[in-house]
């Protein structure tokens, strides 16, 4: 039980916890909700991260009510199937609402946020797919070619049903090897053929360099104390110019962008099965405790809760 007191010492509220879930809340001794019986819980955010037999593809299954995503980006494609409720998100200055039966396609490196539009929350199944998987699977000839889609939100019952089935199957631990090999290509073929296209990756300029070059440099130095002057010199800019140009190009400060990069790379290493202590040091956190706190704040779960097959 957690007890909150007023400054005069009088009891203000109590919060009872069962299995990490809030079960009883009272104010001035009056219950604000009924205690939940063992095995039942008040509505809370629930999220499950898991890997698949394909290292480049991982899964998320979530039931969000209170958790709101701050502005962020991913290193991977995130394909989100809204299975219940509605989500609202901001992308490139425009607010979007997406609901049951719709698919959200969020490309790598694009800034966005997200929250529930309704008090009842929303449920979502997400594929996190490394861009290289599309490049290899579609046998793209040029390194600069990338997979792209012609819309952010897809309303297509057939594609939605196919991807939902794929998500469920990839979560099964007892798939035969041939099914593991064939299912992703088969499952994503409808989406790619109807809404996909191959294009040359756009270079985001930062002085004499590009954002991609800067990302490569930072990924190689995540465990180092990177200074603004270093990045500015790399781009042939002054520190002030770099900050201004970086914010204009990405929508984030260099520090916030680097923090997200560390967490995204940390998630990748966690999925690969590396111990939390090793991951924390490899991506530049002071210790495992600091990494775990930032990870849970960002993804809604601790690193140890990211499951592997």
Automatic annotation (TrEMBL):
InterPro entries: AraC-bd, AraC_XylS_family_regulators, Homeodomain-like_sf, HTH-like, HTH_AraC. Residues 212-309 form the HTH araC/xylS-type domain. It comes from Vibrio fluvialis. Keywords: DNA-binding, Transcription, Transcription regulation. GO terms for molecular function: DNA-binding transcription factor activity; sequence-specific DNA binding. This is AraC family transcriptional regulator. It comes from the Bacteria. SUPFAM superfamilies: Homeodomain-like, Regulatory protein AraC.
């Amino acid at each position: 039980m957690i007890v909150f007191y007023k400054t005069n010492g009088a009891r203000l509220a109590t919060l009872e916890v069962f299995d990490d879930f809030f079960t009883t809340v009272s104010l001035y001794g009056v219950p604000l909700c009924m205690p939940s019986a063992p095995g039942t819980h008040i509505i809370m955010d629930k999220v499950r991260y898991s890997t698949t037999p394909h290292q480049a593809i991982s899964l998320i299954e979530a039931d969000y009510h209170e958790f709101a995503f701050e502005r962020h980006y991913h290193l991977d494609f995130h394909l989100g199937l809204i299975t219940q409720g509605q989500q609202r998100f901001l992308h490139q200055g425009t607010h979007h609402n997406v609901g049951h039966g719709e698919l959200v396609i969020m490309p790598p490196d694009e800034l966005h946020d997200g929250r529930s539009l309704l008090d009842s929350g929303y449920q979502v199944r997400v594929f996190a797919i490394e861009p290289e998987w599309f490049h290899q699977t579609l046998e793209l000839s040029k390194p600069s070619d990338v997979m792209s889609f012609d819309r952010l939100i897809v309303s297509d019952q057939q594609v939605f049903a196919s991807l939902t089935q794929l998500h469920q199957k990839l979560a099964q631990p007892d798939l035969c090897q041939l099914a593991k090999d064939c299912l992703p290509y088969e499952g994503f073929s409808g989406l790619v053929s109807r809404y996909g296209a191959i294009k040359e990756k756009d270079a985001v300029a930062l002085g004499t360099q590009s954002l991609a070059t800067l990302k490569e440099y930072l990924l190689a130095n995540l465990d180092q104390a990177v200074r603004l002057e270093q990045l500015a010199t790399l781009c042939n800019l002054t520190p002030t110019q770099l900050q201004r140009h970086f914010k204009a190009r990405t929508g984030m400060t260099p520090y916030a962008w680097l923090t997200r990069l560390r967490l995204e790379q940390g998630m990748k290493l966690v999925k690969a099965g590396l111990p939390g202590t090793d991951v924390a040091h490899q991506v530049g956190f002071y210790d495992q405790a600091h990494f775990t706190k930032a990870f849970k704040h960002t993804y809604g779960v601790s690193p140890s809760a990211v499951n592997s097959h």
